[in-house]
Structure formats: structure tokens, C-alpha cells
Design goal:
The protein is of the alpha/beta class. Helices cover about 40% and strands about 15% of the residues. The chain has a single domain, classed as NAD(P)-binding Rossmann-like Domain (Rossmann fold, 3-Layer(aba) Sandwich), CATH 3.40.50. The strands form three sheets. A seven-stranded parallel beta sheet has the order 3-2-1-4-5-6-10, sandwiched between helices. Helix 1 crosses helix 7, helix 6 packs parallel to helix 8 and helix 6 packs across helix 10. Bound molecules: nicotinamide-adenine-dinucleotide and thymidine-5'-diphospho-beta-D-xylose (TDX). Thymidine-5'-diphospho-beta-D-xylose (TDX) binds next to helix 6 and strand 8.
Length: about 350
């Protein structure tokens, strides 16, 4: 079946809109969908940074609410007050290495949080729910093949297991309650506003300061990279045109071994490869991810626009030009923004 359904966005709740992908998504919607009202609902964990969306504060269609997705009363009040018709759910604990050190927060946010949102959204009559998920739920590939939407779930890290559990709850809400949930599974994102714990921004910042670049294992693990704006556009396409109950893989056919990414960053910055340090491998490190995006191409007509070498060079420039942003992230100073900016009126 290739029939699509057209859904008009009017009042949307974006969870995790102070994070990397969510902030890019919020900016895109406000620029490109002038009729849409948007609530950015975010708990502001270490990964949430209001400085990433500070330029949007004055936008007439934009509201920020600090809230936890596990807080059902606050979610319910927010949905009803703003007449929300669609939830685009980005909020998550998102870093694999942190999930290895401590998994509890991942289960709370990525599993309990999804269950809370689904329960409250259905009761409040929200018409559509988009779960933004990851290719990591499919596990690890060998040298050949790609993940399709029918690849069995085989999550390997506490992070991916918690995302897979969230995805399965979405599936259950569709099958059990006929609730219109759609799931997207994207490959690795890069671009502006990414927290410097992830490979690409970490390596850019280390290299700019002539620090050591820590490469896990033999550096030959493969990831399939997509620019965050291409991902955001794909999520919007699914939200507006996707079929409820379906999963859509998102990827840009762009596989790279980690070491080659690191060397490319060094080359862009004119820095020596002697900065590379091979370090102990990540436990359970998935070897290769690769997305088959045929379904979203064929059914919804989405295609990525940003060529990787150009996107990576632009991302390096962005980190060069936005040093105050990442320096405040590295120092923890950004955490004070909410208290300063949203201090109660005297
Ligand atoms: P991120 O870590 O940069 O941002 C996560 C955001 O969620 C933060 O603003 C944080 O404050 C918020 N948050 C966390 N727990 C919350 C809670 N309990 N209640 C409300 N808000 C909470 O993450 P990201 O890289 O932007 O990823 C966004 C989504 O996309 C995630 O669901 C992730 O699984 C998925 N994804 C990410 C990638 C990637 O490469 N980064 C790839 C595929 C899918
Ligand atoms: O210091 C490092 N050295 C290194 O070699 C870091 C931080 C990473 N790596 C390797 C591990 C991975 O093979 O680089 C690759 C990418 O690592 P991350 O940036 O941590 O991403 P990954 O683990 O692939 O997961 C990411 O993509 C899918 C996001 O963090 C997830 O949220 C998303 O679901």
C-alpha cells in the first residue's frame, strides 16, 4: 500500500526542542510553517540548552515550557491549554556512552516518558504522535546489507534498548488503541548546535585546540551520516504525510568509518593526524549502521539535500564561528541561562 494521508499541523508540541535536533526542528518550523503554533516542551537536562533557541523567544507563534515528559499532569495541562493537535517527540537521553555508565535515566525518559506522553496525548485527543527514533534499535550490521523497516529489532546498548522499548510502546498504542502514531528511525546526525559529547563536534573542538582526538578501538566502526536539517525535513514530511502505524527509516546513503571522518575534520582545519589517539573501545560497540531509505523516498518523496563534505565543512565553520556557544557548554555556564532569562518578575 502506498497511499499517504495528509495531516495539517496547526498547534504542535515539540518535546526536546532545546536539544540538538529539536532546536533545529523548531527553527525550521517557525521559518517555514507560518501558520503553525509551536510549544517547545523540554526539561532542560544537561543536553537542553535554551541558548540554542534564544533567537526564537520573540517569535509570536513560539512558547517555551520547562517540563518533564514523565510529568503527566504538566503534559496534560500543556496539551489542553495550547489545543495541541500533534506531538513531535524528540526528547530523550541520547548518548550511548552515558547509557553504559548509568542506564536508569534512559529507561525513565525513553520508556516511561513515551508511555506517559502516549497515555496523556490519547486522553487529550491529540490527533497525531510522531516518535523520533534511531537506526540503533536494529543493532549492528556486518560488512554487507542495510537496515530496512522490517529488519528485526536487536538493540545492543542500554540507550538503543530504551529507544526500542519506546518504539514498541508506540506500536502497541497503534495496534491496541488505534492511536495514530508514526515512528521515524534516522541514522547519525551532524550539524550546528550538537552537544560536544558526540563524535563530530567533539573532534572539531578538540582539533581546534590542538587536543588529542580519542578514537575508540580500531576506528573502523561505520556510521551513516545525515545533516540535521535533512533529518528535520524528513520528520516534517512524515508528520504531514506519513501513514499512521508505519515506521519510516531516514538516511542519506552516506557511510563513513570513524577514522576517515576524524581525518577529514583534521584536513579541513589544517591540523596534523598526530593528534589522533586510539583509546579503549566502547563496550558492545556496534560495528556498522546503514539505512535503506527506499520507503521514505518512494512513498513520501523525501530526499536529502545536503552533500556530506560540504555539510561537514559548514559544520566545522559553524563551530569556529560559534565559539562562545560551545565554550559556555563546556564550562557549564549555559545551565544558568534559564534562571537568568526566565527570572520571575519583581
Ligand atoms: P539531545 O540529547 O541533544 O537533546 C535531548 C533533549 O531532550 C534535551 O533538550 C533535553 O533537555 C530533553 N530531555 C531529556 N529528557 C527529558 C525529559 N525527561 N523531559 C523533557 N525533556 C527531556 O538529543 P538529540 O541528539 O537532539 O536527539 C533527539 C532525538 O533524536 C532523540 O530521541 C534521539 O534518540 C533521536 N535521534 C538522534 C540521532 C543523533 O544522531 N543525534 C539520530 C537518530 C535519532
Ligand atoms: O570520543 C568518541 N570517539 C569515538 O571513536 C566518541 C564520542 C565516539 N566515537 C565513535 C563511536 C561511534 O562509532 O564514533 C561513533 C559515533 O559516536 P557517537 O557520536 O557517540 O554516536 P553513536 O553512538 O553512533 O549514536 C548517535 O547516533 C544515533 C547518537 O548519539 C544517537 O542519539 C543516535 O540515536
Amino acid at each position: 500500500m502506498t497511499q499517504t494521508t495528509q495531516h495539517t499541523l496547526r498547534s504542535i508540541l515539540v518535546t526536546g526542542g532545546a536539544g540538538f535536533i529539536g532546536s533545529n526542528f523548531v527553527r525550521m518550523i517557525l521559518a517555514e510553517r507560518p501558520g503553525v503554533r509551536l510549544v517547545n516542551y523540554d526539561a532542560l537536562t544537561y543536553a537542553g540548552n535554551l541558548e540554542s533557541v534564544a533567537d526564537l523567544d520573540a517569535h509570536p507563534n513560539y512558547t517555551f515550557i520547562r517540563g518533564d515528559i514523565c510529568d503527566s499532569a504538566k503534559v496534560d495541562e500543556t496539551l489542553r491549554r495550547h489545543g495541541v493537535d500533534t506531538i513531535i517527540h524528540f526528547a530523550a537521553e541520547s548518548h550511548v556512552d552515558r547509557s553504559i555508565l548509568s542506564a536508569a535515566e534512559f529507561v525513565r525518559t525513553n520508556v516511561m516518558g513515551v508511555q506517559t506522553l502516549l497515555s496523556v496525548a490519547m486522553a487529550a485527543g491529540v490527533e497525531r504522535f510522531v516518535q523520533v527514533s534511531t537506526d540503533e534499535v536494529y543493532g549492528s550490521l556486518g560488512a554487507e546489507g542495510k537496515f530496512s523497516e522490517t529488519t528485526p529489532i536487536a538493540a545492543n546498548s542500554p540507550y538503543s534498548a530504551s529507544k526500542a522499548a519506546g518504539d514498541l510502546l508506540c506500536r502497541a498504542w497503534f495496534h491496541t488503541h488505534d492511536y495514530p502514531v508514526l515512528v521515524t528511525r534516522c541514522s547519525n546526525n551532524y550539524g550546528p548546535w550538537q552537544f560536544p559529547e558526540k563524535l563530530i563536534p567533539l573532534m572539531i573542538i578538540k582539533a581546534m585546540g590542538d587536543g588529542e582526538l580519542p578514537v575508540y578501538g580500531d576506528g573502523k566502526n561505520v556510521r551513516d551520516w545525515i545533516h540535521v536539517e535533512d533529518h528535520c525535513r524528513a520528520v516534517l514530511t512524515v508528520a504531514e504525510q506519513g501513514r499512521p502505524g508505519e515506521v519510516y527509516n531516514i538516511g542519506a546513503d552516506n557511510e563513513w568509518a570513524n577514522i576517515d571522518i576524524v581525518k577529514t575534520i583534521l584536513k579541513i582545519l589544517g591540523k596534523p593526524e598526530s593528534l589522533i589517539r586510539y583509546v579503549k573501545d566502547r563496550p558492545g560497540h556496534d560495528r556498522r549502521y546503514a539505512i535503506d531509505p527506499a520507503k521514505i523516498h518512494g512513498e513520501l518523496g523525501w530526499k536529502p539535500q545536503i552533500q556530506f563534505e560540504q555539510g561537514l565543512a559548514a559544520t566545522v565553520r559553524w563551530y569556529q564561528q560559534n565559539e562562545p556557544w560551545w565554550r559556555r557548554v563546556m564550562s557549564g555556564e549555559y545551565m544558568n541561562y534559564y534562571e537568568k532569562n526566565y527570572a520571575p518578575k519583581m
